[in-house]
Amino acid sequence: MKTNRREFVKGALKVTAAGAIASAINPTALFAALPLQFEQVKLPYAYNALEPYIDAMTMEIHYSKHHAAYVKNVNEAVAADKITFENEKDFFANTSKLSAKARNNGGGVYNHNFFWQVMKPNGGGVPSGKIADALNGAFGSFDKFKEQFTDAAMKRFGSGWAWLVNDGGKLKIGSTPNQDNPLMDISELKGTPLLALDVWEHAYYLKYQNKRNEYVSNWWNVVNWDAVVKGL
Ligand code: MN3
Asked: Is residue 108 pLDDT above 50, yes or no?
């Protein structure tokens, strides 16, 4: 999770520390004055980097239009609803108390920030080491894991996400509707996300049209296992 108020404050203090007024700032007062702000991570690769599996135009529209809109909209909701949570973790843990606009767009920001990180050019393959052991232990084999995850992605009716999560040391596969995620208190599937797949039509329709199965099966070629292992 990239942004929370504390990190933002750290950044702000760094800037002021360079000036002569640093000692005049009361960090507690500054902390209390800053609202939670959601931010869009920088895409870690070029729009065309995941070709031919995910086409450049889909990536560009997905990142610069869809994802950017979630950022704008959630920050509007945070201001309008006077949301005072200090970080995204608390925001999601209290989703049941949020407006639909805050919930849907907050989820949209987080889910896509996460999704970009778990993909990379020349990714995919069969993972080894810690993540392989964890998947074999939880699902029997890598192929069985892949089958179960693919099934979750295919059976999510309409828009949503497929997830691999770490729920207190136990790996689980499931899916969420719309922009919900496993960090939300209202989610049936709970845990720390390790891997996510966006199965909204906007993620694949330009290239794959109605063939979600082809999108999902090609997507395995861009999975960034180095990022997945970090969540273990
Ligand atoms: Mn999307």
From this structure: yes
